[in-house]
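Input.
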Amino acid sequence: MIPPQPIASSSSSALPDLVPFIQPIVMPNRVELPYNPTNRKHKKIITYAIKPVKEHAVNAQSILTLSARKVIVQQKFQESATKHYIYPAFANDWSLANSSTLYMILSNPYKLIIHMLKKIVCTNIALFHLCPGAQLMVSEVEFKIYKIAELLSKWTFPPKFTFGMDESGISYFLENEVLWHVVLDAIMELSLYKYLTDLDSIFCAAAVALKCALQEFATGWFIDIEFAGDVYTELYHRLLEHLEAITADPSLLAQWNEYKDLTHTRLMQLCS
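Output.
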């Protein structure tokens, strides 16, 4: 009689090993290389690139030279393309092939911010009382020239117009009624609150826009001056550097953070 044979367990080496199937990375078809506004993937690339561009524009560098803006936009664009096209070489080719075509769309947040800041500054500049009161027997043009020369004095840095006075009569850098209204209105008008994480950049950019607007009236008469990044970037960075330097002092840092918290609270109320 033949003895019964043992039943092979499921772990027996007699069974073939199961090899997991790995989906190969297939390079996209070259017909996808030109930008197609109806292509879902292409639209996603633009959408995902715009968000970090807006975040950078409002939080990090609100005023850029044209060459710096192109570098940032190309970087964000390529990062988005790489995320959606797994094949790196094709993602690089796609972003390079379409960067010129899509630059105007992707760089728009920077242009909108400086345009809006300048527009709102011009509507709030009267808060500096650039016209003489009824009791002052002085030419309006002469009064305006004197007031603006005082605000723009090249012997004072930071400029006088960047300071605001609190209830105790103490002046603080950037804590200025005009700048505050400009920042609030610009963020609301451009729907940037959901992208906002820090206010340093936008306050300094508003101060630079204010200088541009004051310069337009420096002769007593309005002369249009373009608010261009290539012209005003240096002042913008000097203001940022000054803010960084003074907030190394713990008491001034606490004061500035409190002012930013109040601004965030007001923005939350206005944008909710």
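Residues 60 and 201 are 6 Å apart (CA to CA).
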